[in-house]
Specification:
A hairpin with a 5-residue loop joins strand 8 (228-229) and strand 9 (235-236). By secondary structure, the chain is an alpha+beta fold. Helix content is 38%, strand content 16%. The strands form three sheets. It has a seven-stranded mixed sheet with strand order 2-3-4-11-5-6-7. The protein is globular. The protein has a domain at 95-333: 2-Layer Sandwich (Ribosomal Protein S8, Chain: A, domain 1).
């Protein structure tokens, strides 16, 4: 969900100039949700976010890890903290009207923190949906906002349908091209389901989100074939080469077309930044210049009462289909993430040791106590 600086500039595949150290590679650790959120919130408060905004961003990152979306979890501290330190992302996030029409206001996030801007924007869309049946707005001059589904869930968990689209920094080439120009440009739709977690679709328009390649590099592992090419367009399993190259579009030319459609509805419609005018969130020297589109629909106002029951009926019929050989269960979009989050709340949030070391390194610099046992390279705990 996130590059605008070309390979060779030394920043496009970066982690904000910060690599974790001091902990050995090893098994995933489960750490308490609240403790992780407290430490992360403290790091954001140290950089000027007010307590409520700091807590919101921290909870977003921890929830991403809890839902198995670690590419957009606490690992992203290495993107956001350097940008706050460099002054290329404002710690104060306020939405201001800059244009649009009554049915689709255009707001500016004034280069504030993406997660805060997104939460505020979806809240506005939800209020409009409760009043009018539907609410939508554009937010430009924003930053990388993390996991799109957490904002569609913000609506779906209250009985509304949530829709989010965002442009992103260049990661893929148009079909037939050998130069990255379009972002992964993710989108998400979430709908309430009676008696269960919402159905939530959240995807980038590439074979894989760029952040998953970042996670592979962080953890020192190869990426699967078919994810990306190097800067010359050659297939690669090296995450470093992939980050300097191009992520492949999903479904071939169709992924390219959908990514362009998202760009048409975000950066081009908002009139701020599009294509390579949008800058990589791991580069602390550039503002993001990201544009998002948010919408919320009150389905019972639009199609009559009982929408969540109808979603339950559809979900039940989908899960009851005859399964292919070797398949134990047909899952709904978002079902695996909801189960992972439930487990994380009960058992702790799973983190790769490299990510734990990253959090601990930032916390040590800020003199914030990490209330969990420390594991050193030799494997011992303090």
């Amino acid at each position: 969900m996130t590059a605008g600086d070309a390979p060779g500039g030394g920043t496009d595949g970066g982690t904000g100039g910060r690599r974790p150290g001091g902990a050995a590679s090893g098994p995933v650790r489960r750490l308490p949700w609240q403790a992780l959120a407290d430490v992360a919130a403290g790091l954001f408060r140290k950089r000027g976010l007010d307590p409520a905004d700091a807590r919101l961003v921290a909870e977003h990152l921890v929830r991403a890890d809890a839902r198995g979306l670690g590419s957009h979890g606490l690992l992203r501290l290495s993107f956001y903290l350097p940008k706050l330190d460099a002054g290329t992302m404002s710690p104060v996030t306020s939405l201001s009207a800059v244009g649009g029409v009554p049915g689709l206001p255009l707001l500016s996030a004034n280069n504030g923190v993406g997660q805060v801007a997104a939460a505020q924007a979806m809240d506005r869309a939800m209020r409009a949906a409760h009043e009018h049946g539907v609410g939508a707005l554009l937010v430009r001059h924003s930053n990388h906002f993390g996991v799109a589904q957490l904002f569609t869930l913000q609506a779906a968990e209250t009985g509304l349908i949530g829709i989010v689209l965002t442009n992103a920094s260049p990661a893929m080439a148009p079909t037939g091209g050998a130069e990255r120009l379009l972002g992964t440009n993710p989108w998400s739709v979430a709908a309430p389901r009676a008696g269960g977690a919402p159905v939530v679709v959240d995807m980038a328009n590439t074979v894989v989100a760029r952040g998953k390649i970042l996670s592979a590099r962080q953890e020192g592992r190869a990426i699967p074939e078919g994810w990306a090419t190097d800067a010359e367009g050659r297939p690669t399993t090296d995450p470093e080469a992939a980050l300097a190259g191009m992520v492949l579009p999903m479904a071939g030319h169709k992924g390219y077309a959908v990514a362009l459609a998202v760009e048409l509805l975000t950066g081009l419609l908002g009139g701020a930044g599009w294509l390579d005018d949008v800058h990589y969130p791991g580069n602390p020297d550039r503002v993001g210049n990201v544009t998002h589109l948010f919408a919320a629909i009150d389905p019972d106002q639009v199609g009559g009462p009982g929408y969540a029951d109808r979603v339950l009926d559809a979900a039940t019929r989908i899960k009851a289909v005859r399964r292919a050989p070797g398949v134990e269960e047909v899952l709904l979009p978002g079902e695996a993430e909801a189960r992972a989050e439930r487990d994380a709340r009960a058992l702790g949030v799973p983190l790769a040791p490299e990510v734990v070391a990253l959090v601990e390194g930032y916390a040590d610099e800020a003199r914030i106590l990490c209330p969990w046992p420390r594991v050193w390279a030799q494997g011992g705990a303090r």
